[in-house]
Structure formats: C-alpha cells, structure tokens
Amino acid sequence: MPPTMEALFAERTKWMKASDVRELLKYATDPKIISFGGGLPSPDSFPLKDLKVIFDELLHEETAAAFQYGLTQGDPKLRTALAARMGARGIEASADRTIVTHGSQQAIELMGRVLVEPGDVVITEEPTYLGIFTALATYRPTYHGVPIDSEGLLTDVLEEDLQEMSDQGIRPKFIYVVPTFQNPAGTTMSQRRRRALVDLAAAYGVPIVEDDPYYDLRFEGEAEAPLASYDEEGWVVYLGSFSKVLAPGFRIGWAHGAPDLVNKMSLAKQGVDVFTNAFGQRVAERYLTLGMLDEHLPRIRALYGRKRDVMMAAMEEQFPDGVEWTRPQGGMFLWVSVRPGLDTRDLLPKAAERGVIYVPGHGFFPGTPKVNHMRLNFSFPGEGEIRRGIRILGSVLADEGRPRKGPLAVARG
Amino acid sequence: MPPTMEALFAERTKWMKASDVRELLKYATDPKIISFGGGLPSPDSFPLKDLKVIFDELLHEETAAAFQYGLTQGDPKLRTALAARMGARGIEASADRTIVTHGSQQAIELMGRVLVEPGDVVITEEPTYLGIFTALATYRPTYHGVPIDSEGLLTDVLEEDLQEMSDQGIRPKFIYVVPTFQNPAGTTMSQRRRRALVDLAAAYGVPIVEDDPYYDLRFEGEAEAPLASYDEEGWVVYLGSFSKVLAPGFRIGWAHGAPDLVNKMSLAKQGVDVFTNAFGQRVAERYLTLGMLDEHLPRIRALYGRKRDVMMAAMEEQFPDGVEWTRPQGGMFLWVSVRPGLDTRDLLPKAAERGVIYVPGHGFFPGTPKVNHMRLNFSFPGEGEIRRGIRILGSVLADEGRPRKGPLAVARG
Fold first, then answer.
1. Label partner for A8 (CA 20 to 30 A): which of A371, A387, B40, B193?
2. What is the ipTM of this complex?
3. Residue of chain A whose alpha carbon sits nearest to that of B234
C-alpha cells in the first residue's frame, strides 16, 4: 500500500473541528439569508473617512513603520496608546506589559500555549465564548463550567469549586470570562461579583483571562470597571480588540498582564507569526491617538442601541409565550431560551429554509450542552432585516410550540 | 509560600527562546549601526504610489470586504490570483488548495501543528532558515540536517538517510527546504537535484515544504522551476510570501498543497487567529491583479542586484585571505565562511562596537553548529553603508586573523 498523507497527521489533528459559528458564516455570505448568527459588526460602523485620513498619513510617514517588519511584542507607539486607553478604564497599565496580537483569538491561543498541558483545568462561564474551544484545542485542557445569571458568573459556586479542586491538589490554569456584554449571553457581571472573582483568583493563585472586546459598546447604563482595575497582585490578563470599534479587517487585538506571562507570550508569538501586521497596528494607533475612536463611538453606540431596541420590540410582539431573552445594555448579542425540550439545533434548518439563521446555544457550553438556547446578533443585520427575521423566527417557534399529532410529525420529519 | 505564576507554565514554555536574528533586531533599530543582520527588504522597494491607488480603491469598494471578518482559508479573490501566479511558475495550482497565512512563518507553524508529535523527525538543509526552529518549538521534533553545496541539498546523502530511517521504521514528517536563493546561504538548488528531491519525497512518502519567498527576486541567470512544478503526487507544500515583493507590514503569505493537508491547516488556523487580516489580503490581491507587482519587480531586482554587486566588490577588496563567500543570483543574503577555528559569535560584539552587525551562522544549524560562518544581508543597507560596513568587517576579520601574543590577548579580553 502506498504511504498516505493521513498517516502522518498528529494525534491532535484528529481533535480539530470547525466551530458552529464559523460553519454558519457560509450561510451568511448568501445575501438572501437574514443572519443573526456570526458576530460581525455593522459595515455602517466602519469609519471610512477617518481611514482615508490615516492611510494618507501613513503613506507619508518618514519611517515607513507601517510597511516594514516590526517587533514581536508590537508597535511601541501603539502599546503606549493602549496603556493610556486601559488607564482610562481604571487599569494600572504599561506599554511594557502589553502585547499586540493578531486578534484576541491569538491572545487566548498564546495563553494556552504558555500554560496548558493536556488534562489541565480551564474554568469558563457556562455558557462561554466558543472561540476558546478552538483556540485551546491543541493543548487539550479539561473544561470546568460555572453557571452565570443576570449578574454574571456565580462566584459562590466558583469558590466552592475552587476549594474542592484545591482539596484535591488541582490548581486550574486560568479562569476565562467575558464580564461585560457577555458573548453569548449579553449579560454584564456586577461590581460585587467582579470584586469577589478577583479576590478568588488571588486567594487560589489562578489567573483570570478577562476578554473585554465590547467595553466601549455600552449604549445604556453606567460603565462597570474591568476586573483588571481591581487586580492588585497581577493575576488578571486583560484582552482588548479593535475588531468591534474600528474594523475586524485589520485584525488587531492586545493582551496586558504580568511581565513574566507577557514575556512568554511574546516568545511564543515569535514562533507563531513573528509579529502582527504592522500596517493594522499603525492604523489602530493613529485611530486612537488622533481621537478618532472617541469621536466615532457615540455613532456606533447609537446604531447598535437602536438595533437592540428594534429586536427587543419585535421579539415582544412576535415570539410566542414561554420564550425568554436577556436584555443587554451594550455589545452585539442577546440570548434566547425557548421552551425546555425544544432543540434549537433541530430548529435551525427550518429557520434557514425560511430565510433566517442564528447560532444554536449548544456550542457555547464547556460540558453537556443545554439544547434550548440560541444566540442572536443584532449588530450586523439592518433594522428592516431584524424585524423580518424576528417575525420569521417567531413563526418557526410558534409552529414548534404547537402540539402535533404523531403521524403528521413523522410525515414532516 | 504564595502561589507563583511560573509554577503554572507548561513544560513547552521552558523550551521557548528568542532566535538569534530577532535578538539582533534590537541593534538594528539603532540608526548608527550598519546592519547586515535581519532579513529586511529595502524601504526603497515599497511601492508607495501603487499603495495609494489601492487604498483609495479599497475605501470605495461596495462590499467593504477589506474591513469585515473573512473566511479562515483566505479571501477567495486573492486565492484565485495566487493560483494563477503559481500557475505561471509551472505549478498546477488551484484556489481551493491554497490557504492564506499571516506570513509564511504561520504556514510552517501550521504544518507543525497538523503533523508533528514530540520526537518526530523533520529534515532540513544544513544550514537552514532558522525560523523553523521557533515555529516548531511547541511540537518538539527531532531535526535531521542534510548538507548543501553550491547546487543545494545533497540529494544523494538524503537518499541514504531516508533509506536508513526507513529500515528503522522511521517516516519523517516533512523535509523543509528553501531551494531558491536559500536563507541563509544564498544558493539555488539545481534542476537535477530538484527532480531527485521530488522523486525521493514520493518514493518515501515524505512531504516537502518548499519555502519560496525569494522566487521573484532573481537579478541574474535563468529561473529554476519550483519543486512543486515537478510534483505529480501531491507531496509538495508550496509556501509563498508578499513580504519581499510588496511589504512585510501586511504580513501576507500563503501555502498550497494536498487538499487534506490544506483543509487541516485551515481548521488549525481557525483556532489560532480565525483569519488573516482582510485588509492586507485585499491589498495583495489588488497588487497582483492590477499588474502592479510585475511592473514593480524590475525595480526591486535592479536595486538588490546593484547592492549585491557593491557588497561582492567590497568583500573582494577588504576581506583578508582565507575568507570565502557565496555568490547569490537573487534574494537578499550571502554566506561568509571565515577561517576554521574563528567563532563568529565571539566576533560579533567586536564588530558591533565598531558599528556593524551580522548574524552568526550558529543558529542556522539543526544539529551541532559550525562556528565559522556568518549571514550577510544586502537588501536593507544602502550602498554607502554596505561599503563602509564591509570595510569595518574586513578590518575586524584582519585583526582576528593575526597571531597575537598571550598577555596582550588577555589584556584585550
């Protein structure tokens, strides 16, 4: 038998699979489908006029820093601007402890690379952002989920779990949370819980990865200070991103944390891709330093706030009894719970056939999934699409809600 | 004792270290130092006028494809343009079997991720591009080096080695080569050896990673067809890059290979960074499709050809007897051999003190390093700098060549 390529694949390659969300993007490119899936910002939010000003400036910079190779840790000017930005959020930050990454996803991957051995425990919210599962797949952690409610992570439950693990000699490698406008649930962790979480991290010596891409997208209520602002002992690694407030196409994220850790992440990144595209970094730095971001934010907030309102009003009107949803004060997502027993993954092809898609909740659970949830994105679709899409989804849910006769159900199977 | 962060580091983190070249970049930012280190293209080679045209166009594209999230495998238009480009090099290529990466380094990393388990054998040239060592560090292969001469990899030696491994039941995971204007040696593999190498890969079922970033930078002689153009069974993975012919700052590379492998690389990339910055991809596609690259190449070739000539002439004049060097017909590097017994790593601080740096050859060897080599880059420094730098290096080499009296040497130590 001739030698095959497959026989050469590493063990870890057998564990690779596409995330539910990425698979959905295939539908999303069909212009006839209304997509509540994906996590795309609105193209209307891209600051094209600002970008024109920035591009012209970068083409005339003496140093051509935008086009040459750069340092692995990231453009020093951008890191300085990021430290100031984090400072304004109450974080004691420095450029030295900041690393620029090719999107936040890479920062999570680097955390896994530096810390996680197969079988190590990583704690997540339940549900959690599903990108963590693909980011860490190579390092094969054991996930431990802690439920959330409208105030975010249940820190009492976490404390019990940490104590139990500690009794067994288990020290988790990190706790991954999206405390503000959580992906997928849209909830925001209360100040009380934030303080409790940071205290627990210090008490048990477990780093927190605070993924905070939506911080600037609050369209209602008072800002909650990041976990990192309560962190006195350096256990919080803070992740930020330009994907939701500038544009995803430049792929610029960052991480800030303890010097040892950032140094190791930087060494790891050297092997991974040497440095993050310099052009995107210079664009991000100019966008920050010239004050364009702060000028632009009210527009994005107003845009997304209106879209959320349209979606909430439409759901109120169109969804059948027994369906519940969260009410986010910012961000891009909300979380819908349909009646127990209904499986949103089974529902998806029916919804897609009628022209609307969403992300079934299954993929967001670190352990056994709860099957009666879905994540809806309100930032990408237009207001008219949101109304039409929710009407369709409401009718799909209403059909499923009706008791059916056995034979008919089989015939429709 | 309070819990420490270090105690959480994974085993693999202890193996991470900076490459010699990246460390040198620190010197390279000092404008007073003449750098023959690094692998930077000349800023004079950046097509700023073309970029202005492209940027304006991308800001007016209907789809805003340049700014939104994109597919993990890469922009379909760019992949189509790349397939055509590879076709013109004699490769039977398709967009489906092409993946866009965040620089070629990421393509090597993804190959490691998909194929390499700790202890697996990876074959390289000796010397080889040292980025492979950091790219694969996490996967901890065993390297097996095969020497090169002025015709490139010694395929006779490789055949013996492959047979010996095969007898022992060892199937290497891949053979990594830079056949054209090799980094670091500047040599180009002959057609005879190319055919032999591809035949060996097929006979032993071992993939070849053909890293070909300098293909378009030939300023003398006839083009050699890529290994991939001789590949009938799909064992060659072909890597290309825009870093040397457009600008490194966009960080756009690509890989082309067997469908199974590209599919797995794509799945792996999803976890690593989701997709390569869309803006850079659109810039690269426009640069190709509008014919700007082909219009621009003669200028880069002339620029680098002149610089090589200046360096060769200066070495001829300034270097003491017993020093030898390669004569590249393209690319960015040449390889200098000083007298046996002299260690170029010891020499470096002395050269740096007088204002010139280079990369000691040590880091390019997969096994025990030969210590009397250095890599010189001629693409980045200006012609005047090349003359001055070579004069300094010549005087450093001449000083070292002289027999010294014991006490004096100690006093200088």
1. B193
2. 0.93
3. A5
